[in-house]
Design a protein that fits this description.
two-stranded antiparallel ribbon; about 5% strand; elongated
Length: about 120
């Protein structure tokens, strides 16, 4: 099981900070001493996993995320993109290329309108 999966299983979100050398883990209130030690021990592999995800994320999503100040981790938006593409491909019986293009437009429009970028109460 990947380190990101372990942390997600603990209810934590992990994202790269600008510069790509450090990570942000939220919500801070859920980080126990054991999880903090796990994060310290696995930080290099966590950063590597996050960088791999970044390489697979359309740059338009990352640019729009940066420009709008969206509070969600860009990885969440990348997952939304992948989900939208799969839905459009399956339900619309579209080729993967067409489905990804439409999904990209969907997610960029959502970010620009602020729809997916609001945190739930208690999140930070």
């Amino acid at each position: 099981m990947s380190a990101l999966s372990v942390l997600a299983g603990a209810g934590l979100r992990v994202s790269l900070k600008p510069g790509g050398q450090n990570i942000a883990v939220t919500p801070a209130g859920r980080i126990t001493e054991q999880l903090a030690e796990y994060i310290r021990q696995h930080k290099p592999s966590i950063i590597a996993e996050l960088r791999k995800q970044a390489d697979q994320t359309p740059p338009e999503i990352v640019r729009t995320w940066l420009a709008t100040g969206c509070k969600l981790p860009w990885q969440t938006l990348a997952e939304l993109y992948q989900e939208r593409a799969a839905i459009r491909q399956h339900d619309g019986q579209l080729s993967r290329d067409v489905a990804e293009s439409l999904a990209l437009s969907d997610v960029v429009a959502m970010i620009n309108t602020g729809l997916p970028c609001q945190l739930n109460e208690g999140d930070s």
